[in-house]
Amino acid sequence: MGQLSNPRRGAERRLYTQLRAQIEDGTLAPDAKLPSTRALAETLGVSRTTVTAAYEQLAAEGFVVTAVGKAARVATPAVALPVVATVPRDNPPPALSRYGQRVAALKPYHMVSPTARIDFRYGAVASRDFPALGWNRAYRAELIKRQPTRPNGQPEGEAALRQALQGYLRRARGLTCDTEQLLVVHGSQQGLDLCARLLLNPDDAFIFEDPGYRMARYCFEATGATALPIPVDASGLQTQRLPDDPRARLAYVTPSHQFPMGAVLSIARRVELLNWASRHRAWIIEDDYGGEFRYGQRPIDALQSMDAEARVIYVGTFSKALSPQLRLGYLVLPRELVGVFREAKRLTDRNETRWEQNVLASLIDSGAYERHLRRLRRDNEGRRKALLDAVDHHLPGLGKLEGMAAGLHGVLLLPHLHERDEDALQAMALERGIGVYPLSPLFTTQGERPASLILGYAGLTVQQIDEGIRILAQVIREVMAAAHPPLIPQS
Ligand SMILES: Cc1ncc(COP(=O)(O)O)c(C=O)c1O
């Protein structure tokens, strides 16, 4: 949004391109020290934020190595660059498919701050929260079992895990299904990709929460389908705005904790959404990415449990409760979709994580998984409280947290700043070792909105949370002092 016309972005791009070219042609040799951000900013007459952002980009791509308190250096060995053959003009290379061209055109998804000492990255979980002892024990037991001679897993996943999940989903999410309807996938992302490829055509449209989960939107847009963004409020997706558009073939929703704003979709709206899907013969994808984490009250049952017409595809993941590195997720499919999803899954990867799937099944069956979840909920409740307290303490009257009733992140609304200030906030916070993430890239529509930052807390200690917000508060005050007229007048 407006990025091309943003002069800082232009300067950042130019600097990045120049430095990269110098690294590639050897002018800047491997291990060469780069000037400090301050010195280079002064020499070039640009802001330090611009230089830092260019360095960060080079570091993210492996051209440069940065570390807090140390000078940035050219990576050693220098990044191996693909050899580009000279292409004769009369013999251009084979073209990408239209799908490939759409994927190539997607805006890159950068969600890491490699130099952040305290990183509020959402989606991260603390590795110390992983139940390593129980997992190791179960893994050893699995390894010494005599494996059946079947060389490949079945596309639907291990029977033991599907059986264990069936019971877990009934107990925890009020969701009833046959084991047949369960398809184990490599994280919900693979499940979303299968949905996109099997359910959407290029002329179709899909309902998408605004703001919403960008990695889902990218999957759907890559098919050539068009997003129909629907705003969300404190009760979730504004279902009264669902369009009567004959192109709409599916709706992607996060009803248990709207991503990223955190609302729980009200019962009345759940009914309205199901009725809309029925009228339009559309599928609903229910992404339950954080359904286990609701504080104070029992988690609300899954939308799928209200679905009388088998329209809902439920997407679950173990990325929050165990680790995103496991890449273990699952779909609960309407019966008529089971066959085609299994075959598409077979084409993709045949489903080979058999050991991990069986280990997880044994943890669920023994009750260890649900004990772990209860412990994790308590720990995350402590982190959540630390974040609420820190914002109260360090940002009185300047920032407001939204969407904290469930999940593992909140949205910090900064009514005195404009969303165009989000990049500066992010870059200045990173200079002080704090990773924060702007909300605006998650909107499909453009608008005049106050600045907001997404703050994930599940990977941090309560001390880090307090310190991170204390430093962020200084940054916010500095950006405010650099004076923008308030978007929403102070009351
Ligand atoms: C809305 C949403 N869905 C799903 C996921 C999880 O993806 P995966 O299961 O592929 O790790 C995330 C991760 O952050 C998310 O934010």
From TrEMBL:
<keyword id="KW-0238">DNA-binding</keyword>
<dbReference type="InterPro" id="IPR015421">
    <property type="entry name" value="PyrdxlP-dep_Trfase_major"/>
</dbReference>
<dbReference type="GO" id="GO:0008483">
    <property type="term" value="F:transaminase activity"/>
</dbReference>
<feature type="domain" description="HTH gntR-type">
    <location>
        <begin position="9"/>
        <end position="77"/>
    </location>
</feature>
<keyword id="KW-0663">Pyridoxal phosphate</keyword>
<dbReference type="Pfam" id="PF00392">
    <property type="entry name" value="GntR"/>
</dbReference>
<comment type="similarity">
    <text>In the C-terminal section; belongs to the class-I pyridoxal-phosphate-dependent aminotransferase family.</text>
</comment>
<dbReference type="InterPro" id="IPR004839">
    <property type="entry name" value="Aminotransferase_I/II_large"/>
</dbReference>
<dbReference type="Pfam" id="PF00155">
    <property type="entry name" value="Aminotran_1_2"/>
</dbReference>
<protein>
    <submittedName>
        <fullName>PLP-dependent aminotransferase family protein</fullName>
    </submittedName>
</protein>
<dbReference type="InterPro" id="IPR036390">
    <property type="entry name" value="WH_DNA-bd_sf"/>
</dbReference>
<keyword id="KW-0805">Transcription regulation</keyword>
<dbReference type="InterPro" id="IPR015424">
    <property type="entry name" value="PyrdxlP-dep_Trfase"/>
</dbReference>
<dbReference type="InterPro" id="IPR036388">
    <property type="entry name" value="WH-like_DNA-bd_sf"/>
</dbReference>
<dbReference type="InterPro" id="IPR051446">
    <property type="entry name" value="HTH_trans_reg/aminotransferase"/>
</dbReference>
<keyword id="KW-0804">Transcription</keyword>
<keyword id="KW-0808">Transferase</keyword>
<keyword id="KW-0032">Aminotransferase</keyword>
<dbReference type="InterPro" id="IPR000524">
    <property type="entry name" value="Tscrpt_reg_HTH_GntR"/>
</dbReference>
